[in-house]
Amino acid sequence: MSKNIKLMQGNEAVAEGAVIAGCDFFAGYPITPSSEVAEILSSKLPKIGKVFLQMEDEIAAMGAILGAALGGAKTITATSGPGMSLKQENIGYASMCEIPCVIVNVMRGGPSTGLPTLPAQGDVMQAKWGTHGDHAVIAITPSSVNESLYETIRAFNLAIKYRTPVVILTDEIIGHMREKVVIPDKSEVEVIDVKLPDVPPEKYNPYNYTSGKVTPLAPMGEGYRYHVTGLIHGETGFPSQKTDIIQNAQNWLIDKIYKNIKDIEKFEEFQTDDADILIVAYGSTSRSARQAISMARAAGIKVGMFRPITIWPFPDEQISNLSKKIKKILVVEMNMGQVILEVQRTACGSKVYGLHIVNGEPITPDNILAKIKEVSEN
Amino acid sequence: MSDRIEFRFSGSGGQGLILAGIILADAAAIYENKNAVQTQSYGPEARGGSSKSEVIISNDPIEYPKATKVNYMVSLTQEAFNKYINDVKDDGIVIVDKELVTDFSKAKGKLYVLDMVKSAREELGKLLGLNIISLGVLVEISGIVSHDSIEKALMKRVPKGFEDYNKKALEIGFRLAKEVKKG
Fold it and tell me: Which of A34, A89, A348, A359 could covalently link to A78 via disulfide, CB atoms 3.0 to 4.6 Å apart?
């Protein structure tokens, strides 16, 4: 066979995608159900002259990838809920200092150590608000092994382009499940590389809050000397408490993501054209929803689905538009109600229902079909 | 969804049932160009506890990746048999070992009780490879993939030096299934 087709796990696909994206550096601390990402990269990266580093814990791993990124490396770490909690302080540092990095969170049941080997989708809000202070983040929710590979490449690109942490939010099902993947050649995918600034070192400012363009992060060691601090800083990188600088810095952290939402957003609409009920589902749950939709349509109930692939920033515009023509929206997620809050915020005029099952088992097509029938009769 | 077939290997952590599932999915997906999804479920312990490995095979795209209406189930512990039998379809097939599963009060579907452990002990000299014997039984009974495909998928995942051992285990499985089908 000419194409490189493999049966692989979601976690393996993330590792494969990282290598194709040109990942230079992984640091992490293994944790179920994400460990395969570390395990596979520990084997792959050193063979191609790149770095794998196991750190003493998750926050140290987060620090390590930020240091490496400041040195010009493309970096990634992988963890699950408890590790994600530990990383938060340094994720905030990445947001504030605008350091590109990719963070994989293979969600398991929580809070605390929760359910190490069982799936959940309880970290969606954490991905956005896990670290303190006003900031924006990009988060991506793949729903297949194939998508895990391609979305990891996209995550690296977005991280470099917008100088931001990008969270890949999979779950135990997607991470551990094996499916067929067609592995692309590097020449077949778009890869954004780390660039040197287009100004000489003496004219370089590491931040720019007003031009609307993201300043490239100059790799340390290339002659560009600048200050890096978690304190609010001006465009030179040095701390400031001037009101206009503070406001500009704050605006910029939000604007650089939200003003580029058209470039960052990604979603799939499935059978929405004639739908009377719209399901909003993401990650592994969207697979159950898709099967439930076929079952519902066979029973004469017209259901469609909106599936966010980029979940943060939230696709406000799409939900808002769909809510103008579809009057019942059903949000299905393996948590007690997180994305439903965003849907309620953006869906004007539709009635929003939720199906939230958190019992260690995936939400089944039968679970969803039963809820669809209930919503349909309501 | 019409030709979706669901397989479940169940037993105790460490018996190699997840690997058996991976090999079956690989045979179907890579060597027979079908759609296949393999998933697994186990507890937090490294060994012991009930574990299962599921494979869905279909010519259509597979959405929900887990088994809910099981067509074929292998059980290599009593605990797993009791725990996972409920999802077996009424016309489903359940394959168990004669020594490992003895209480059939919860039985469902069509039951095949085979001497897998005894054959492993006598012909392989140890129980290592019981997972592959059960894989051979499952493939022979279901006819889901060819002998050739499953052997190729098996050889890809077997450590060097253990090729003949595993091939023998697979063939024991084929033979036991043929015997039980006749009988």
Answer: A34
Whether A287 and B1 lie within 8 Å, measured CB to CB: no
- Choose one of A154, A188, A222: the last residue of a domain: A188
Domain count, chain A: 2
Q: Do residues A21 and A156 make contact, with C-beta atoms less than 8 angstroms apart?
A: yes
In the predicted model, is pLDDT for residue A121 greater than 70? yes
Does residue A170 form part of some domain?
A: yes
Q: Which domains, from first to last, does chain B contain?
A: 5-182 (3.40.920.10)
pTM for the full model?
0.96
Chain centroid, CA B168 distance in Å:
16
Residue A185: exposure state from Cβ atoms within 10 A (0-12, 13-18, ≥19): exposed
User: Which pLDDT does position B182 carry in this prediction?
Assistant: 83
> Where residue A42 sits, what CATH number does that domain have?
3.40.50.970
The answer for A 342-371 residues in CB contact with B (under 8 A) is 362, 364-366
Q: Return the structure tokens found at A6.
A: 């493999």
Would you call B38 and A5 a contact, using CB atoms and an 8 Å cutoff?
no
Domain range holding A71? 5-188
Tell me, yes or no, whether A242 lies in a domain.
no
Q: Is B113 on the interface with A (CB under 8 A)?
A: no
